[in-house]
Amino acid sequence: MEKTAKALNELLCDLNVLFTKLQNYHWNVTGKDFFVIHKQLEEYYDCVSKEIDEVAEQIATLGYQPLGTLKDYLENSQISEASNLKVKPESIIPILIKDFEILLSKFTQIKEHCDNEKIYITSSLMDEYLSSYSKKLWMIKSLTV
Ligand SMILES: [Fe+2]
Description:
With 145 residues, the protein is mainly alpha-helical. It has helices at 2-28, 34-61, 70-76, 89-116, 120-142. It has one domain: Ferritin, core subunit, four-helix bundle (Ferritin, Up-down Bundle). It has 5 helices and no strands. Helix 1 packs across helix 3 and helix 1 packs antiparallel against helix 4. The chain is globular and about 50 Å long. The protein starts with a helix and ends with a helix. The mean pLDDT is 97. The structure holds fe (ii) ion. Residues 26, 42 line the site of fe (ii) ion.
């Protein structure tokens, strides 16, 4: 169970950094597709906000302590922050594709581990995320073809 809590805490860190990064892009994106990308980024961070709470409460439900400081999040996230700079959609999209792929890989690893350990509540949460991020990835990749 401890390994599951550690993996979930690392995921919590990724999600918190991603949340801030998505807001940063939402505020700093510029260009002719501004309205579409600005709005889409808000949809993404609203979704991530909900997932942050779900993952933290999943950790608590398993009897462990969710990480709760920005220092923890930055130190343990595989996803990196964005800079405080104006940015074009064509720069944001490949970065978000990579970040969503990082998350999908983590969901899969956590699910496989949880299935082996019969921790089905966490496994089923990962199913939801696998489904939602696979769809997000398909849609965002469609922007670049
Ligand atoms: Fe806004």
